[in-house]
Each structure stands twice: as C-alpha cells, then as structure tokens.
## 1
Amino acid sequence: MITVSDLQEHPLDQVHRLIEPGPVILVTTQHRGIPNVMTNGFNMMIRHAPPLIGCTIGPWDHSYTALRETGECVISIPGSELAETTVDIGNCSGQDVDKFREFDLTPLASQQVAAPLIAECFANIECQVADTALVDAYNLFVLEPVRAWVDPSRPHPQMFHHRGDGTFTLDGETIDLKDHMTKWQYLL
Ligand SMILES: Cc1cc2nc3c(=O)[nH]c(=O)nc-3n(C[C@H](O)[C@H](O)[C@H](O)COP(=O)(O)O)c2cc1C
C-alpha cells in the first residue's frame, strides 16, 4: 500500500501548476476611451445564478487600474487557434502597445459596458465589478456577468489551460456522466 513516504513533496510556490483553474481568458477594459486587453489564467466561477466570476488581476497590469477606475470589463474566451496570440498579449502592456491593433483583434460594441467584445473569441461575457473587498488583499475581483455572447458558428470550440510554466493543455475528449448527476439534476 502507498504511504506518504512514497510521495514526492511539491513546492508550495508551484501549487498553481497542479490546479491552475479554468480556461485561459482575455480580459478587455476601456480606460479613458482607449480599449485594452490582457491575458488571465487565474480565474474561477464563484456562483451559478446570478453568476459571479473571480479574476485575479495584479496592480502590475494596466488593466488593474482600468478595472478599478471603470468597474467594467469583458471576459473573452479564445479558442486554441488563438493560443500563441493570447500568450503574446500577456507579455506586453497596454501602457506601451495598442494591443487590438498589434494583434489584429476586432473590437465589437458591448451592450452594457464600455469595454469591447473580441470578434475572434468564441464567447464574450460583459461584466461589472460586483465586489472589490478582496482586491487589496488578493488582487481578486469579483465580477458579475451582465450580458454574454457566443459565436453560433463555433459549437465545439477548444479552450486551452495554462499549466503555469508556459505550457498549455488543450481541451480533449468530452465524456458524458449525466447519469451520475443524480443530486444535481437542475444543472443538466
Ligand atoms: C498565460 C498567461 C496567464 C496570465 N495570467 C494572469 C493572471 O491571471 N493575472 C494577472 O494579473 N496577470 C496575468 N498574466 C499577465 C498579464 O496578462 C500581463 O501582465 C499583461 O501584459 C497585462 O497587460 P496590461 O498591462 O495591458 O493590463 C498572464 C500572462 C500570461 C502569458
């Protein structure tokens, strides 16, 4: 039988590589009339309905200032065909670069927030900041989706997930375990 001595200790500062959640997303903001976009890997669902999403966005990002000052953003979900572009977007700042132009992204008008949707992403979620209580301590913004859009021409998009070290996992096979969801029928 396996015991704890058979296990290898994993460094705490590498724990994110075991559990980095959610897909890699893009977060758009609009600050003083200028649209910008950043890459975000630290994100999670917080509540089903009404939905809440948590995103960690650090003060080193121009997007942090934009989000604090405007209270609005769009979460745009890229497919794996945008993986390289997405990483490049996360390696420069809107303070220096017009990222929409640099990366050939097409901004589309949102309906309820000033920040733009991204046409090349298969899903876009317009969000308002719902709670900043955890921002000072953890850079964690609680976001409330107010409108959401999906591209109907892309019914089976492939998301990608950061493994925390510059490598990524692409969505693979889907398995259907609805039969086991006996307690959670309302989610199906
Ligand atoms: C794969 C990847 C994931 C990232 N995840 C985050 C994140 O979760 N939170 C964060 O603050 N920055 C994250 N970054 C870094 C920002 O995207 C980066 O600092 C970006 O240049 C900020 O742009 P801005 O200054 O225009 O806001 C990530 C970068 C990459 C490449």
## 2
Amino acid sequence: MAVVEFLLRVGFEVNFRDYARKTALFFAIENGHLDVADFLIEHAASIMVRSKEQKTPQSMLKALKHKAPERKRKRASPTPSFVCPGAATRSRFAEWEWSQEESEPVIERSEDNVVLESQQYFVCWNARGCSKRLRCSELEFAGDHAHLHQDATWYRDLTTQQAEALVNVHADDEAVRLKVIEEMATGVRPSAFTLPAVSQQTHTVAGYIHASFADQTMTITHCKVDRPHQGRGLGGLLIEAAEKRAQKLGAAISKVKLTVLETNEPARKCYAKSGFQVCGKSSSIFPPCNCPEDSCQCDNKIKWLTMEKRIA
Ligand SMILES: [Zn+2]
Ligand SMILES: [Zn+2]
C-alpha cells in the first residue's frame, strides 16, 4: 500500500494500461487488495475501463459485492504530501487516448511486408485495418508530450485539444483523419508513409513512424513508441526503417530532419544516438497562453529543436 501511495505521488499514471489493457486497479481487485483498489479509485483510477477480456473494474467489484468509494474532491488548501496535482489531468488524458478503439488488431508477419526487424519487433509498410489503433497511438503521442510537463503549474489545466495542437494531430473530422492514416499505413501515398512497429511476440502494434520526403530530404513527423515498449531501442529501429523505406520508394535522400521538444530528454537521446544533431530552434505553443492568434508576445515558450542527419 505504501508503494502504491509512493508511485502515485511521484507521478505514476494511475490509468496506465498493460498489453492486456488492464490498469493497476484490475490487479488490485484480482488479488483481493480491496484497500488498494479503494485508494486507486479515490485517486482517479477509472472503473469503466475495459480490459481485453471485456472486464471492467466496476463489474469485478460488483461481483465481489464491494461498493466503490467516491473520488476524493479537491481540498481547499492542499497539503503537498497528500495530493497528486497531476492525477486528474493524467486520468482525463488516459480516457481520451483510448476512447477510440478497444480492440487490438493482429498483424501477421510476412516476408514481403517487413521493412526491418529485430528480435522483439518488426516494422512493416502495409497494415490494413489498423487506422483506429494507430490513431490511439497518435493521441498517446500527444499525451506523452503533455505529460513531459507534469511538474509545471499549467499542466493541470491542459486540455487534450491543446496537446493535439502541439504535435499537429488535431482532427476536425475524425473519419477523414482515419482515412488518411489508413492510406499512410498501407503504402498508397507516393511520398509519405506510416510504418507500424509490431511486436514479434503478440503481433500487435507497438508504435509507428510517420515521415514524408521531398527534394532529397526526409522529414520525420512522428516517431512514437507505445508506453509499454519504451526504452527497448524501438525508436532507433523505426528511424532506420523509415530511411530504408524511403530509399526503397526511389527517393535519393541525403538528409533526414525532425523536431523534438527541448523538454523531451529521452527522445533527444534516442535521436542523438541515431546520428542527429541540433541545428535550430523555434517556439512551441506550450505553455498555452491567451494571446490572440498570430500575435503572441510570450517569451516563456518551450522550444522545438530541429535536428538533422546527413546520410550517404
Ligand atoms: Zn495521491
Ligand atoms: Zn502568448
């Protein structure tokens, strides 16, 4: 129990889901730790999330005849050691990121579909019927950028729309967005593509890279490793796969470009390891402000770093 409290206090995501789409709350209930379950629910753990086995914490608690507690309301004067300021924001984002799709499409490995692979993952260029799943990753990509700033005072008021706008994945029409993603992931577009990374073990999506090319330059717009797969070298594999794919499509690429938020330490390390160097800076829209469009005077904006790499 002390461990759970500690994890929540240091910013552990209460609604983080594993490969079976279960949150910590599922495990607490399954193992009979109803005190821990109550604590998690009080700290904004969702009781409505559905696991792969189609269970929800709500239905499991009902079967145990256990009444879920109320979520704790905000205190008038919060004591720092007793509240997790970001918990509500994280919970809000977690529900949004996975509201689209509950199923986990399976992508079978076939020789002609593999761009590049490691022992754990293969990167492919043609993944039909995965657009909703890739859209979830895309929203998680926006969420990842938001959560980098969980210690900032403005984090708790951050909206999912602002997070989407930061990384340019905001969609006015969700159906149109899904159609574009489907085209990108099935190799239909001549000079842009999305390559999903697939787990060799479960054959399910583990991340993706999205890139376009023109005039000998390839621009990587998204390089997304899903949270359970982070820290395993998948980012580097995706970048290498994108370079290989562009060459395969006949692009004579001499330069690869991308932008990374200066606050995104893990991504910057990954890109540096892949041979990228910082060559420019520009302002992001974070922290959000209320300036009228096109006339922002704020000088506190977090910077995007432009990184480049020359390739033979
Ligand atoms: Zn807490
Ligand atoms: Zn401003």
